[in-house]
Amino acid sequence: MVERLKPVDVVTVGVGMTGAIMGKELAAAGLKVVGLERGSVRDTVPDFQSPMIHDELRFAVRKGLMQDNVKEAVTFRNSSDQTALPIRRWGAFLPGTGLGGALVHWNGQTYRFQPADFIYKTHHEQRYGKDFVSPELTIQDWGVTYDELEPHYDRFEFLLGTSGKAGNLKGQIQRGGNPFEGPRAREYPTPPMKEPYYGALFRKGAESLGYHPFPQPASTMSQSYTNPEGLKLQQCVFCGFCERFACEHFAKASPQTIVLPVALKNPNYELRANCHVLRVNLDSTGKKATGVTYVDAAGQEFEQPADLVLINAYALNNVRLLLNSGIGKQYDPTTGEGVVGRNYAYQTVSNVTVFYDEDVNINPFMASGSSGTVIDDFAGDNFDHTSVGFIGGAYIGSIMTNGRPIEFHPTPPGTPAWGLGWKQAVARHYNHTVVLTIHGSSQPTRRNYLDLDPTYKDAWGLPLLRMTFDFPENDLRMSNYVTEKAAEIGRAMGGKTVAAAPRRGPFTSTVYQTTHNTGGTVMGNDPKTSVVNRYLQCWDVPNVFVVGASAYPQNASYNPTNTLGALTYWTLDSIKNKYLKSPGPLVQI
Amino acid sequence: MSQSAQANSIAATAFVALLGQFALDHVLAQSGSRQADVNRGAVIAAQGTAKVPACAQCHAFSGASDGSGTFPRIAGQSTYYLAKQMHDYTSSARANPIMSPISKALSADEIADVSAYYASVDSQFPPLATADAAIVEKGKQLARVGDAARAVQGCNNCHGPDGAGATPAIPYLAGQYAQYISSQLQMWKRGFRNTGPESMAAIAKQLDDQQIAAIAAYYQQVRGQQEVPDTTDASAAKR
Q1: S-S: B166 plus which of A105, A486, A520, B170, CB 3.0-4.6 Å?
Q2: Is the dihedral of CA A217, A220, A224, A229 positive or negative?
């Protein structure tokens, strides 16, 4: 028996970063908001306190903060002629769960995308000609521009308190910042974090080759900060337990430290934790959502009617919820028709490892998830692609996030994989090694997509999401090229041995790379190639907005969080200033 | 992760935040490649020098000071931490009318030696009256978990399991005199002390007087922590 609850104005599916921000803002605007979070309530005190929170086995190895894949997994295959199987233990990517979502266990890397990224197709046609990009790559424009998003980037960065150095203030290039970035209205809210030794070595090497190093923008605080919501963050202590862990120090921007306490104080806002949304309910026309159905911790099903349904889950789960709710047409790779699940993209990440003599002490354990130094010279379209044979690029950085004992043990090529020789090499190299990260773009293709698995179901009997993905040749060529540039920097850094490992296919789901899954509910100006319009509003069901990196038509060279924060405020703006005044489609076609 | 690995990682961690490159260079430059002379440090502790009185007059030769809590227990505090405090007294970054003139009158080598001496002492705890059990329990809660309503994290996050310290940068609190802990927290709270990470002031400002008293009462009665090896001091000495 499904219990029908009292209608509310807004329901958010998920209370992570986007759900918390939207819930807070709309409740403040006077609407009755219910936030449905499938995971548990958790907070800095008492849940994130040490020594428990520094348990590497529990959180890094056994991935204690991630989605329970016994209940809900993703099935995976490299291509359509294979049979997908469920990912029983998270490997390549780690979907989070619980109040605050992935912003609880993130590293805090806070990049903006470039102006060209938002007009990706147009930009390439204008710079290189109409036939330059292979038709196999289904790149497209976002329908929103950098200039439109700039105030929202700004607002989000000030919410987080991001530490960094501007490289472009209103068109004026600034020394010490990233000269390739789009113009900013003002400096970062807090100055850059201290440069770790590995960052300093990289800076020297990169500068010697004529590149433009700058401090990585970090939402782990360089100093204490009070955000516009009145919430206080503290200075990061470089403990090296950011990614996969939660911060015990109030030093990392997470919903718990930047926005949730304000939402929870508002009587218009109600958080319901351990409530798992099964589907968005539609009326008989299929063009209007009536609310959502969810199941609580006791297994009881509820129908929560709402005027406005905001889908704020993780990118992959946003796609799955639309498909399980019958919203939008499933993408078909054979015909190229349909939109939901289309343009799934990832991130093309590789590494270069620089091994030093024993007199160079790196102390990699003194790190935050986002400290370090990077260059943008080979990101996006910052360099001439005319004759390199690919589009896209990567930032290169010395951005080691930790030196944790169980999993950080770099060894040079030729080291035995186990036994005495391996142990000796680990002891020899642990404190004398710098790992460079090459963090690259991911182009969408016709054959990479998401749909519902025909065989496997979750704990509630609903089909799992099926991922069909392999690295496009374009991206492997990109990785090869930029990784070699990183190796040159590694040699200029004075390493004795430099080991370059460009990304190679096929994509494997068992080796950790990054959790930057994007696409599947792509935004745009054409309903034939997008699920949501430029305001993240569903073309088919206008009282549903889908807010997540699932909206990215392709993934840029950068970590996706900041752009998602900007899109969240952009969408909020359109809801508050346009949609609520006149509910209905915000874009007419 | 074992407790000592845990403590080491916190220690290592705190290094960057606490020191800043300047302070680190400063201290290392002063000690240079010279190995600290513990015996010479013991003589300074017992007799003083021509310019300064014996440390033992207030801190006792054992480093346990006296039970009044006016002077901190310094026995077994890390060499690095003790030397840094002395240099902060010298520069008046940490102002104290007794310690500043003494520090200024000692050479960098003498500071290194006497710090190494007190770091090496394994001293007994004087018998003290026990505080009210409810207050101690409240302090334990704050030390281990913090206070959600005031957005204060647990002290042990930085100061190590039950205040054992996180060498070399973060002092132990276990067994420290309640009077001393509480007076220092009040100084952090009121802005008279700021020789450490910003978060120490931020935390102290969030605590009320009862909480400060409870934390102090709790740590004073903690005993029997495993010794945390002071590895960084050893490697600094090698250098």
Answers
A1: B170
A2: positive
Position B224 scores a pLDDT of 63
Subunit contact A249:B157, Cβ cutoff 8 A: yes
pLDDT, mean of residues A246-264:
98
Q: Are residues B43 and B103 in the same domain?
A: yes
**pLDDT confidence tier of residue B233, bands split at 50, 70 and 90:** very low
- For the residues B74-83, what does the mean pLDDT come to? 97
Per the listing, tokens 């026309």 go with A285
Instruction: Give the domain extent around B26.
Output: 3-126+234-238
Exposed (0-12), middle (13-18) or buried (19+): which is A292, by Cβ within 10 Å?
buried
Cβ-proximal residues to A432 (8 Å cutoff; 6+ apart), any chain: A355, A356, A357, A358, A360, A361, A362
Residues B115 and B156 in one domain: no
Which residues, 6+ apart, have CB-to-CB distance to A288 below 8 Å? Answer: A282, A541, A542, A543
pLDDT at B226 over 60: no
- Helix orientation angle between B209-220 and B178-190, rounded to the nearest 10 degrees: 140
d(CA A85, CA A62): 20
Chain A residues with CB under 8 Å of B3 CB are: 51
How high does pLDDT run on average in chain A? Answer: 97
Tell me if A88 sits within 8 A of A72, measured CB to CB: no
* CATH class of segment(s) A3-77+87-192+215-346+443-468+515-579: alpha beta
Determine contact, residues A320/A340, Cβ cutoff 8 Å: no
One-letter amino acid for residue A500 of the chain = A
In a domain, B228, yes or no: no
Chain A residues whose beta carbon lies within 8 Å of the beta carbon of residue B203: 234
pTM: 0.92
E strand or H helix at B30: helix B3-31
CB contact under 8 A, A251 and B6: no
- Among candidate residues A297, A346, A404, A276, the one with its CA nearest the CA of residue A15: A276
Is B32 domain-assigned?
yes
Given a contact cutoff of 8 angstroms between Cβ atoms, the answer to whether A430 and A544 are in contact is no
Look at residue B226 and tell me if it is in a domain.
no
Shortest CB distance from B13 goes to which of A43, A46, A238?
A238
Residues 6+ apart with CB under 8 A from A275: A36, A37, A38, A294, A295, A296, A297, A302
Residues of A in contact with B148 (CB under 8 A): 43-46
Q: What is the pLDDT of residue A253?
A: 98
**Interface check B158 vs A, CB under 8 A:** yes
Instruction: Report how far apart, in Å, the C-alpha atoms of A260 and of each of A10, A16, A41, A551, B222 are.
Output: 17, 9, 11, 24, 36
